[in-house]
Amino acid sequence: MDAGQHADPHRPSIFRSLLSLLVMIALVVGLSWFLREFVIQPYEIPSGSMETTIMTGDKVFSERVTYYFRDIEPGDIVTFEDKEIPGRILIKRCIATEGQTVDLIDGRVYVDGVALDEPYTHGLPSDPFASTLVDISYPYTVPEGEIWVMGDNRTNSKDSRYFGSVKAKSVTGKGCFIYWPLESFGVLQ
User: Fold this and answer.
1) Is position 124 within any domain?
2) How many domains, in total, are found in the chain?
3) Residue 180: exposure state from Cβ atoms within 10 A (0-12, 13-18, ≥19)
4) Domain that holds residue 164
């Protein structure tokens, strides 16, 4: 190139290319953060407390959008902050919400005096625990702003029978589907 000639004005400079790449990376990181904070969060299931609905080692997505538009409802599978171990997230089924009364009679769960039909427990008994983290007596009325949660595997789940009701504001999302392993892929119900 002669000293009098200039670079092709249509050819991007290295600086512009690097700047474009950095902006693209920042957008991807920002979008990923936004999705994890406000839309959907992946979790790996470490225990058998929700078997056979969710198996140990399954990977699930918990979405946050539903609870921007409606309250938590009985039957929802929810992820929430553990009361005992800060930073740990648990997954259980919501059985009752504020103001409802939970009772455990002869291995069955009653909410507001009505026995629940719970096919997801496969007939496992829902008995109170002899040793609990907090003092729980039945019938138990769920306090305002809280929910009562239980694992589907009733004989192998530390849940509200052990640690009491949980604050609705500690709920991080609604379990929506299993994404791994592929043979378990499907919507949670």
Assistant:
1) yes
2) 1
3) middle
4) 40-187
Inside any domain, residue 7: no
Catalytic site positions: 49, 92
Per-residue pLDDT of the chain (189 residues), as tens digits, is 455 555 555 666 888 888 888 888 888 887 777 777 776 788 889 888 999 899 999 999 999 889 989 999 999 999 999 988 888 899 999 999 999 999 999 999 999 999 999 999 998 999 998 888 888 999 999 999 999 999 999 999 999 999 999 999 999 999 988 998 888 888 888
**Residue type present at position 27:** L
Q: Is residue 6 part of a domain?
A: no
Consecutive H or E run containing 126: none
Assess whether the previous peptide bond of 42 is cis (omega < 30° from 0): no
> To which H or E segment does residue 51 belong?
none
Judge whether 27 lies within some domain.
no
